[in-house]
Amino acid sequence: MNPPEVDRVAASRAAVAARRARAAVKAAIAAGERNPLDVMRTAFAEPLGAEGKLRVTEFLTSIPAIGVTKMHRIMDDLGISPAKRLGGLGKHQRERLYDFLYDRLSARTPAPARLVVLAGPTAVGKGTVANHIRENHPDVLLSVSATTRAPRPGEVEGVSYYFVDDAEFDRMVEEGELLEWATVHNAHRYGTPRGPVDAALAAGNSVLLEIDIQGARSVRRAMPEARLVFLQPPSWEELVRRLVGRGTETASEQARRLETAKVELASVDEFDFQVVNSDVGEAAQEVVDLMKTRKAKR
Ligand SMILES: Nc1ncnc2c1ncn2[C@@H]1O[C@H](COP(=O)(O)OP(=O)(O)OP(=O)(O)O)[C@@H](O)[C@H]1O
Ligand SMILES: Nc1nc2c(ncn2[C@@H]2O[C@H](COP(=O)(O)O)[C@@H](O)[C@H]2O)c(=O)[nH]1
Questions:
Q1: 115-292 has CATH 3.40.50.300 classification
Q2: How many A from CA of 110 to the centre of ligand 2?
Q3: What Rg do the C-alpha atoms of the chain give, in angstroms?
Q4: By the 8 A CB rule, do 282 and 231 touch?
Q5: What are the residue boundaries of the structural domains of the chain, listed by start?
C-alpha cells in the first residue's frame, strides 16, 4: 500500500470504530444502563469523544419513550437544529437541553405502577393505544370489560368486550363482580370484571384498564395505588377528525360524544399523568414505562 492508501484505510478504520462507540452509547441509554444526563455531561467535557459526537437527534431517540415525532417537537421547542452534535451545542442550547431532560427524567422516577388506568375523551385513541400495548407487551394484562352495547363489525367476544344483556349486567353488579362500572355517553353500561384484575395483580403482573373518566374516578376510590393516565389529543380539531374519520357513530351520536369530551378535557388535573397521543407507538411506550415492565425497561 502506498502512503495515501494507508491513510485512507486508517481513516476508514477510525470512522468504523467511532460509529461503533456511538452505537454503544445509544444502546446503553436505551437499555437504561446509562443516564442521559451523565452522557450529556461527558459530551460537554469531551466534545470529540463518542458522546460529544452523538447527534442530538440520535441521542434523544435512544431515550425510551422519545420517538421520532416527539424528538422533532423537542428539537423545535429547544431551538436546536437536527444537524447539531451534543459536543457542538452552544452554552444556551446545552442548558435548555439539560434542563428539559432533568425535568423529564425527574418526573419519571415515581415508584412503578402495577395497575394503570388509561382514560380520556372519546376518539382520542384509547382503544388504539391499548391494542398496541396488547400486541407489543404481552406481559401487560389488558382488562376485557363487560358492556351492554352491541358488538361492532370485527369485534370479538371475550377479546374486545364481553357483550352481555341488561339482566346479566345487573347480576354482575349485584354480585360484586365489577371493580367499577358506568353508563357511558348516556347510552350503554360498561364495567371492569374484578376477578382477572385481582388475579393478575396477585401474581405480580401489570394490568391496564382502558375505561372512561367516571370509571377512572371509581378505580381511584377503590384502589388508590392505581396510576391514572389521561390521554390527550394533539388538538381539538384532530379529536374531531378522529371521531368523524372512525365513522362508527351517527352524526347525532358524534355531537353527543363531543359535548361530553369538552367536559372530560377539563378533568385532566385529576390525573397523575398526561400522555399526548400524536403517535400511537410513542404514546403506548409512555404508558408502559409507567409500569416498568421488563419490556419497558428494554
Ligand atoms: N395517534 C393517532 N394518530 C392518528 N389516528 C389515530 C391515532 N390514535 C388513534 N387514531 C384513530 O382515531 C380513531 C379513534 O381511536 P379509538 O377508537 O382508539 O379511540 P377511543 O379513545 O378508544 O374512542 P372511544 O372512547 O370513543 O371508544 C380511530 O380511527 C383510530 O384509528
Ligand atoms: N367505566 C368504564 N368505561 C369503559 C369500560 N370499557 C370501556 N369503557 C369506555 O366506554 C367508552 C365507549 O367505548 P366504545 O367501545 O363503545 O367506543 C370508551 O370511553 C371506553 O373507554 C369499562 O369497563 N368501564
A1: yes
A2: 28
A3: 24
A4: no
A5: 3-108, 115-292
* 201-231 per-position pLDDT tens digit: 888 889 999 999 999 999 999 888 899 999 9
- CA–centroid distance, 112 to ligand 2, in Å, is 25
Residues in the chain: 298
**pLDDT (0 to 100) of residue 119:** 97
Best residue for ligand 2 mutational test, from 190, 207, 260 (most atoms within 8 Å of Cβ): 190
CATH class of 3-108: mainly alpha
Percent of the chain with pLDDT over 70: 94
pLDDT band at 109 (very low <50, low <70, confident <90, very high): low
Q: Measured from the CB, is residue 93 less than 6 Å from ligand 1?
A: no
**For ligand 1, is residue 147 a contact (CB within 6 Å)?**
no
- pTM, two decimals, is 0.69
